[in-house]
Each structure stands twice: as structure tokens, then as C-alpha cells.
């Protein structure tokens, strides 16, 4: 691996916790549904001389680096280009049976954040892309800003970024579009948001952080596919198999918590309805009543882990 590529390799978040909860030595087949640069997969393969890992990722650049990184494990590792929303079909196509564990790290990888050409970060001035798979042919973040009506854009920024100044930001973007000056770069967007958002003295994050998060989620449909992924994953697991998911913001964590509770049989129907109609059925045991959080050592070594939470459940 070239030095500049190696620089992208980062510490995998909550690694010890994930390895413990899925009990790697007892696993025959594990699916890493968000392979990224292969950190979690490498640790799993190193833990057991017999475990096989199927890694899935929609980012071809990350997939290529991970394949190179894990080459020493030979046929114990298989990589597939795809979105984790297709996990059920990908597992069936692999013909490796039902997995003992499925893991997913929902965070954006260091490769994506630190690559100035991808448009995920306002630390670099780059085209405003934000697609996890830049070859997908889907709309970019710049396309979304240019084509989305003001009210809908405000809703996206508020709902996915929890940004209170969403309506002002959306109005300013619409005004730029009307002047024939649509936003096309990360710097342009970051500067607009910074002017639109009144930054408090206690604010520790850049004013544009929430807006960038919202656009990334919208561009990639991240929340839309998450519940389906969780349900499909549990269906694919063998009996007593474990699903472990790492999230990085409250929107994801709420979906994971709610879906796990529903899969554990918790009824979501209003209390006055005499009969359950939500379809809740006890299919899993929740292994993490409270989410697993990074310890002090990890927080020191990897500041990006500060917002990470992991939840896990076991199929009955």
C-alpha cells in the first residue's frame, strides 16, 4: 500500500466492544456490511484462524484499499461492491450460509472525510458531491441545493441536521440560485452557513457541521434504508447470531433503538387500541440495554470516536 493511501487508515471505532459482543472465536462466518478501509474486518480475521468475512461497501476507492490491506487472509475474505441495503441479496449470492454475526459502522470513513475531492468536509474547498458512491449517477449535494424547493430544503436541514437556523439557510441558498449563483463548492456552502448561523460562545463545532451532515444523509438516503437493513440483517442471521451496529448521531441511534425494541417484541401501537396492529414480534434479545460508548483511552487516541454508540441484539 502506498504511503499516501496508508495515511487514510484510521483507528476503527469501538473495536474491542464489537469483537466482544459478537464473540469472534465462536464465529464461522461474519458479514461486515460497511467494510470501509477494513479495520473491523482485519481484527475479526486476526482473532480466529477459521472465520470467513464477507465485506460490503459502496465506495470503490475504499473497497480497493481494503482488498489490498486484507490480501494476506486469502479466501477467508471476500469483498463485494454494493450498498448495505442489499445485504440480504448479497448474502444469498455469496452462498456461504447464514452468518454468525453482522456488523455495520455507519460513520463516514476517514478516506471520505480526508479526501479533498469528495466534498464531505468543509476543511477543503472541493466540488460539493457527498455521494458515498461517486460513480452511482445519483444527484450530488450541489444538485440537491440547486433543485430542491426552499421549504423542502429547510426541512431536510432541520430534520437531518437538527439545525435551528434551517429556514434562514434555505432562504439564502434560494436567493443565490435566483441570482444565478448556485452553490457548487464546500467552501461556498460553509461560508454561507457561517454567516447565516449565529454561533454561540459555547459552541464547539463549526456552524456548518449540521448542514453538511443533513445534506450527506439526504444525498445518500442513509436514514431511509437503515430500518430495512436492520430487519433484513436479523432475518439473515443464524439462530443466536448477533447484529452489532455503530452509529454517530442521534437520528441513527433512535432508529436503531426503536427497531431493536420492535424486533424484541415491544408493541408500538397507541395504548387504547385493543389489539396490536404494528406487527411487533419477539425475534431478538437486545444485548445492549444502554449503548456501548468509547472509553477514555479511545477518546484520547481517536477524537472522531466521541459521538460513537454501538447497539447489539441476538437473534432468537
- Output the helix-strand order: HHEHEHEHEHHHHHHHEHEHE
Q: Architecture of the largest domain in CATH?
A: 3-Layer(aba) Sandwich
Number of contiguous helices: 14
| C-alpha termini separation | 42 Å
CATH class of the largest domain: Alpha Beta
Strand line-up in the sheet with most strands: 3-2-1-4-5-7-6
Number of DSSP strand runs? 7
Low-confidence stretches: 1-9
Overall pLDDT metric = 91
Oligomer: single chain
Main structural class: alpha/beta
Q: Could you describe the largest sheet, including whether it forms a barrel?
A: 7 strands, mixed
What gyration radius follows from the Cα positions, in whole Å? 20 Å
CATH fold annotation of the largest domain: Rossmann fold
Please, what is the CATH homologous superfamily of the largest domain? Vaccinia Virus protein VP39
Helix content: 40-55%
Q: How much β-strand is present in the residues?
A: 5-15%
How many discrete structural domains?
A: 2
Q: Can you walk through the features of this model?
A:
- With 316 residues, this protein is of the alpha/beta class.
- It is 42% helix and 11% strand.
- The protein has helices spanning 3-6, 15-22, 39-47, 60-69, 87-94, 110-114, 141-147, 150-161, 166-178, 186-196, 209-220, 222-236, 250-263, 296-301; strands at 29-32, 52-57, 77-81, 101-105, 242-247, 284-286, 309-315.
- Strand 2, helix 4 and strand 3 form a beta-alpha-beta unit.
- Helix 8 (150-161) crosses helix 11 and helix 12 (222-236) runs parallel beside helix 13 (250-263).
- The protein is globular.
- The N and C termini lie far apart (42 Å).
- The model is unreliable at 1-9 (pLDDT under 50).
Amino acid at each position: 500500500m502506498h504511503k499516501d493511501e496508508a495515511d487514510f487508515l484510521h483507528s476503527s471505532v469501538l473495536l474491542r466492544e464489537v469483537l466482544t459482543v459478537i464473540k469472534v472465536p465462536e464465529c464461522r462466518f461474519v458479514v461486515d456490511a460497511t467494510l470501509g478501509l477494513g479495520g473491523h474486518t482485519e481484527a475479526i480475521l486476526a482473532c480466529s484462524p477459521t472465520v470467513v468475512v464477507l465485506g460490503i461497501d459502496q465506495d470503490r476507492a475504499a473497497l480497493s484499499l481494503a482488498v489490498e490491506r486484507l490480501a494476506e487472509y486469502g479466501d477467508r475474505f471476500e469483498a463485494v461492491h454494493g450498498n448495505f441495503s442489499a445485504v440480504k441479496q448479497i448474502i444469498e449470492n455469496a452462498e456461504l450460509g447464514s452468518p454468525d454475526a453482522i456488523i455495520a459502522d455507519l460513520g463516514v470513513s476517514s478516506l471520505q472525510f480526508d479526501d479533498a475531492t469528495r466534498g464531505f468536509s468543509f476543511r477543503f474547498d472541493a466540488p460539493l458531491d457527498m455521494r458515498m458512491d461517486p460513480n452511482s449517477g445519483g444527484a450530488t449535494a450541489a444538485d440537491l441545493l440547486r433543485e430542491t424547493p426552499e421549504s423542502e430544503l429547510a426541512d431536510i436541514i432541520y430534520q437531518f441536521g437538527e439545525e435551528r437556523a434551517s429556514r434562514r439557510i434555505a432562504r439564502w441558498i434560494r436567493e443565490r440560485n435566483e441570482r444565478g449563483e448556485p452553490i457548487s463548492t464546500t467552501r461556498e456552502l460553509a461560508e454561507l452557513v457561517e454567516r447565516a448561523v449565529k454561533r454561540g460562545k459555547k459552541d464547539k463545532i463549526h456552524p456548518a457541521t449540521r448542514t453538511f451532515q443533513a445534506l450527506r444523509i439526504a444525498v445518500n438516503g442513509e436514514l431511509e434504508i437503515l430500518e430495512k437493513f436492520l430487519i433484513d440483517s436479523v432475518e439473515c442471521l443464524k439462530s443466536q447470531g448477533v447484529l452489532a451496529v455503530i452509529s454517530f448521531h442521534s437520528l441513527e441511534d433512535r432508529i436503531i433503538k426503536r427497531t431493536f425494541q420492535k424486533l424484541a417484541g415491544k408493541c408500538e401501537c397507541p395504548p387504547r387500541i385493543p389489539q396490536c396492529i404494528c406487527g411487533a414480534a419477539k425475534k431478538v434479545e437486545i444485548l445492549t440495554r444502554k449503548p456501548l460508548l468509547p472509553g477514555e483511552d479511545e477518546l484520547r487516541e481517536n477524537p472522531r470516536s466521541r459521538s460513537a454508540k454501538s447497539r447489539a441484539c441476538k437473534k432468537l
